[in-house]
Specification:
single chain, Beta Polymerase, domain 2, 10 helices
Length: about 290
């Protein structure tokens, strides 16, 4: 038995977006009412599945970035910063995070602001507002040979103080390009949603697999599938993509898979990379799902 075209088409549908937009607007209002330290500029934007239009039915938490833009970090050495005339400042990520927490607590009440997470501040739901993971970040600039090549954001985990670099805007732009008429004729993002729903079907049946196939990595995995595999038929796209991935993940090709932001490899040992064993498990479970 195969998965029907109608089932895959249902899985391709985007989940609701109104609540995410309302939550984003509410947080923007909360931050705008706060009296910031002199000279501070920032921007807020959605990231993750809601921003990338790959959210599916049942997705609830919204990911939002509050990024300090009046300060930036980089991969430059002290000597290179000196040559480029870049000076340091006393106000950085830690000070900005404290102010964001104060701004949210003043607006919503401290009981709705959970700061216990290692990566984000959790704004708890209330009065139609859905739960939000607020990532407090600072602008990050990536240089190669002292030339600016990419811009992203950076933050630190607590209490480890481990620095994380991310490029959500590049992730969005590259996903939009792959979804374009020129590349996949608007079929990329609907099929990402198909693969995420198929993942949920698998983890519903086998709960011990929960957490091993994160949405971000699933999307990046599909990003590496050739554009020619995306066709008007969801069944043919599913089969062609799975067959291609199943072959690539068992030869050396997987070592060249990249994240959708094109700034790092998908598989590796860092905390922002996927485990090749989990990716192989994911694909094998989808094959079993199709056959069953």
């Amino acid at each position: 038995m195969v998965i029907s075209e109608s089932q895959l088409q249902t899985w391709s549908n985007q989940g609701a977006t109104v609540s995410a937009q309302q939550t984003h607007e509410s947080i923007r209002n909360a931050l705008s009412t706060y009296r910031w330290s002199s000279g501070i500029t920032y921007e807020t934007y959605l990231q993750g599945s809601y921003r990338n239009s790959t959210n599916i039915r049942g997705d609830s938490d919204v990911d939002l970035v509050v990024e300090l833009t009046s300060v930036f970090y980089s991969n430059l050495t002290d000597s290179e910063k000196s040559q480029l005339g870049i000076t340091s400042t006393a106000y950085g990520w830690s000070e900005f995070r404290k102010e964001v927490i104060t701004a949210l607590s003043n607006y919503y009440g401290f009981q709705y602001v959970d700061t216990s997470g290692s990566k984000s501040i959790k704004l708890l739901p209330n009065s139609g507002r859905i739960k939000a993971d607020v990532v407090v970040a600072v602008e990050y600039k990536h240089y190669e040979n002292m030339r600016l090549t990419a811009e992203g954001m950076t933050f630190w985990t607590l209490p480890e103080w481990r620095q994380i670099y991310n490029f959500p805007k590049l992730h969005y732009e590259n996903g939009a390009s792959k979804n374009s008429q020129q590349q996949t004729r608007g079929l990329y993002k609907p099929n990402v949603r198909v693969f995420k729903n198929a993942r949920n079907r698998v983890t519903d049946e086998y709960p011990f697999l929960l957490g091993r196939f994160p949405s971000y990595f699933v999307e990046c995995l599909l990003f590496n599938v050739p554009n020619s595999k995306f066709s008007a038929s969801y069944q043919s796209t599913f089969v062609d993509s799975i067959n291609w991935l199943n072959s690539q993940l068992y030869n050396d090709s997987w070592q060249r898979f990249i994240c959708q932001n094109k700034m790092s490899y998908l598989f590796g040992d860092s905390t922002v990379q996927w485990n090749i064993g989990d990716a192989r498990e994911y694909v094998s479970r989808l094959i079993a799902l199709w056959n069953a």
